Amino acid sequence: MKSWAAEFKEFIMQGNVVGLAVAVVIGAAFGAMVDSLVADLITPLIAAIGGQPDFGDLSFTINNSKFMYGNFINTVISFLIIALVIFLFVVKPMNALMERMKTAEPEAPVLTKCPYCLTDVSVEATRCPACTSELTPTTMPA
Predict the structure, then answer these.
(1) pTM for this model (two decimals)
(2) How many CB atoms are located within 10 Å of the residue 81 CB?
(3) Are 47 and 55 a contacting pair, CB within 8 Å?
(4) Across residues 117-128, what is the average pLDDT?
(5) Which domains does the chain have, with CATH numbers?
(6) Can you give the pLDDT at residue 45?
(7) With 80 as the cut, is the pLDDT of residue 104 above it?
């Protein structure tokens, strides 16, 4: 019987756990990069067009409580950029790959009823498998 420490070590060393850890670190770095892009380039550009010198400092005050809605707008823009990048570089390629790998499903055989015993029979059959009656295109219902 393995100790819990040995089981934990085995769990941590699995490929999917290590891959997930790497993805989290890269995702955090990418998120920081996108946040910087939004705060340092995109938001000032939008603010310059709108006439506001610093978009991130947009706020209003109610009863001495300061609401920093400019920071919220920065966060929403960051989220949309990250979602767009994930969609374009992860979701779309995976969907295309899955579509390529998809095998064509075989067509279901077209069935009809035997006019003599009412058993389901393939339209290509020349004899009924149940009653062995000879089937011709004229005896088969349309």
Answers:
(1) 0.53
(2) 16
(3) yes
(4) 88
(5) 4-101 (1.10.1200.120), 106-142 (no CATH)
(6) 81
(7) no
